Amino acid sequence: MTVDKPFVATVRYVKRDKKNDSSVKPYILHYAAPKDFPQNNFAIEPVNGIGIHSLRTAGLSYEDHGMTITSIDDSNMQPKDFDDDDWIESHYLPKLHDAVCLALGAKEMTVFDWMLRKRSRSFPKRAEGEENVDDHQPSLSAHIDYTEAELNSRVDAYFGSKKDEMLSRRYQVINIWKPLLGPCRDFPLAFIDPTTVDTENDLVKVDEVFPTVANEVFQVYSNPNHRWYYVPDQLASEVVIFNAYDSVKGQQLAVPHCSFDCGEAGSGIPRQSIEVRAFVFY
Questions:
Q1: Are 206 and 26 in contact (CB under 8 A)?
Q2: Taking the model in full, what pTM does it have?
Q3: Which of 18, 34, 91, 270 is the most exposed place for a label (fewest CB within 10 A)?
Q4: pLDDT in tens, 164-193
Q5: Dist CA 172 CA 101 (whole Å)
Q6: Where are the beta strands (DSSP E) in the chain?
Q7: Which pLDDT tens digit goes with each residue over 32-80?
Q8: Which residues make Cβ contacts (< 8 Å) with residue 217, sequence separation at least 6?
Q9: List of domains in the chain
């Protein structure tokens, strides 16, 4: 892949549909819907010809654009190690804590969630008889992981009686993403510069419904002003940090993101990655 000019790809957005009933909130079910019940009540559409620029050479600051790249020592990390939850907790997360705090100038990081994704070879299609139940797949539609209301609803669960003490400082909610093996040329993650997002008209609140819980997220409508970035040939020693919420700026710098297909320029080696969600305190 050439890094001197944008990589041109297809990105998936929510389809603007004037026929939709504005009084009915969009939803998507993350389990098999009952018979004759729609799995979701909105449509995703591919938008072709999107130029995705190199974040390496963009010169964007985290403070102004909500995303940055930093490095982590991966000399003792193999993809198979990440299959062990205890290893992630005892080895990877402490290293990540130090790398992120150094990169952002934060004093402390509290992880509240992490997820492995392992692309099935048939993805984005599904082979006959294949359920992909155990492995999370790349997310292909542009989105932000949380609305402010969703974050507020989770704070008690994260901090309990320490909530007021923890949130009395400036803090941010961030996502930290990296491939387990690089260079990553298979469904890499791409990011919209939040300063190019019209938050009033580009974002729509959607309920992601699981068997026991519903999470409110933002899905994204297409806008030709959006400027997209990714890390070409991202290495396993590189992590991307991107913002979801800031206690001072709110969601002004929340970064919409999704994966995209590199087509013939892809490696063909199914992507494996880990994403970590955390609070950082200053």
A1: yes
A2: 0.91
A3: 18
A4: 988 899 999 999 999 999 899 999 999 999
A5: 12
A6: 7-14, 27-29, 44-54, 67-71, 108-118, 143-144, 171-179, 189-192, 203-209, 214-220, 228-230, 238-246, 257-259, 272-281
A7: 878 888 888 899 999 999 999 999 999 999 999 999 999 999 999 999 9
A8: 143, 144, 145, 146, 147, 150, 205, 206, 208
A9: 7-281 (2.60.120)
